[in-house]
Task: structure prediction
Amino acid sequence: MVTFLDRHDAGRRLARALEEVRLPDGDVLVLGLPRGGVPVAEEVARSLHAPLDVCLVRKLGTPGRPELAMGAVGEDGVRIVNEDVLHTAGVSPDELAAVEARERALLERRAGTYREDKPPSDVRDRTVVLVDDGVATGASARAACQAVRLRGAAKVVLAVPVAPADWTDRVGDAADVYVCPSTPRDFFGVGQFYADFSQTGDDEVVACLARAGGRQAGLEDMRHGVQPGDSGTTSERDVTISAGGVRLSGELTVPPQAQAVVVFAHGSGSSRHSTRNRFVARMLNRAGLGTLLFDLLTPQEAGDRGNAFDVGLLAERLGTAVHWLRAQPETPQGAVGLFGASTGAAAALWTATDPDLDVAAVVSRGGRPDLAEPRLALVAAPTLLIVGGHDPVVLDLNRRAREHLRCPSDMAVVPGATHLFEEPGTLAEVAHLACGWFTRHLTATPYNPSA
Result:
C-alpha cells in the first residue's frame, strides 16, 4: 500500500498533520534524522518557518542481520541497547562494542560533512521537532529524543509520516508529543509506503540543509529590510506566477554571484516537486546557476491528462515564467536557459523559438521533442538532447528530431539508462551533462565536476 510519492511528499503531509499541534510562535527547531529523515524534515521546517539541522543517531545493526536494530547511539554519548534483541540474537559484548565503535566513527564523519565542522544547533530551552521518514523498531527515534533532552530541549515533538500502530509503545515516553498521520496495521517496513524510497545520499542531506539555511537567511533579511540576494547568501523562496488567469506555484533559488538562471519544465504527471528535476537543479545551483522550478499546470488542470500534452499551453506558461523571472530583484541580468523533461522538453523547445524571450540554451532529459516538431527548425538556442541508452523508442524520436534542428546541437546517450534514469549513477550523469552545457552557453565560468 503506497501512501507517499517520496520523502518530500511525506514531509508535506506530515507538515499538515503538525498544524494541529500547538507549537510556540518562535524558538522552534526542526531536526531531521539522517539520512532519509532530512528531506522529510526540510518540508516540515519550510512549513513552520523554522531552522533545520540534523540529529545524528546511528542504528546498531545486529551482526549478520544489520537490518535488525539491537540499539542505537547518538551525539553526546547517547546509547540505547535492546536487551531482548541482544539475548535472542546471542550477541556478545565484544560484538556489540565493535559495532558501536564503527557506528560512532561514522557518526563523527557525518557530523563534519553535514555541518561543515560547525557546532550543532543549540536546543536549550527550545521546542525541538524531531523528524524521520518513518519508525520501525523505534530505537533510532528513542536515541534522538534522549539526545536532545540531554542537551536541554524544553519540549520534544517526535513526528514521522508513517509508523506501526503500536509505535508510541515502541518509542516509550521519550517524547512529549507524538505526531504520525499514517499508522497502518499491516506494517512490514517503512519503505513499503513510499513509491520512491531510494537511498538518500550525503549530497542530498547537505543540499537540504543549505536550502533551509538559505530560506532562514532570507527571512532574517526580510525582517531587516534587505532585498533578496543582497546578503551574499543563496536566495531561495517560494513564488507564485500568474499565467492566463491561473496562479502557478514555484521555487526560485539563486546562489551568490549567479550569472544565469535555468527554468525547469516538468513532464506529464509531474510537478515542481519532481525528485529528478530537483536533483539536477541542486547540481546546477552548486555550479553557480540559479534555478526556477514551477508547476506548469494547476492541480485541477493536471487531473486532465490531455493538458499535459498540450504543448502550446505548456510553452505559453513557460514563456510567462521566463518573463516573470527577468523582473525579479534577485535574478541576475544574464542569460536564461531551459531544462525540459519528457513533454516538458517539447514545451522548452517550443518556447525557445520565441525571439522576445531570448533563450540562450536548452537541455532535454528523456524528452519528447517530436511533440514540438513543427517548431524545431526555428530553435536558435544551442540544444542538448540527453537520452537513456535503454530507452529505444525515445532514443529514436530524439534522433529524428535532431535532424530538424538548425541550431548548434548535440545528443548524449547515457549507457544503461531507461526513460526515468532510475539506474544508479545515470541521473548524476544527466546532471553533469546539463551543468557542462549550461555553464558553457550561459556563463563565462567553466564547469568543474569536482567542485
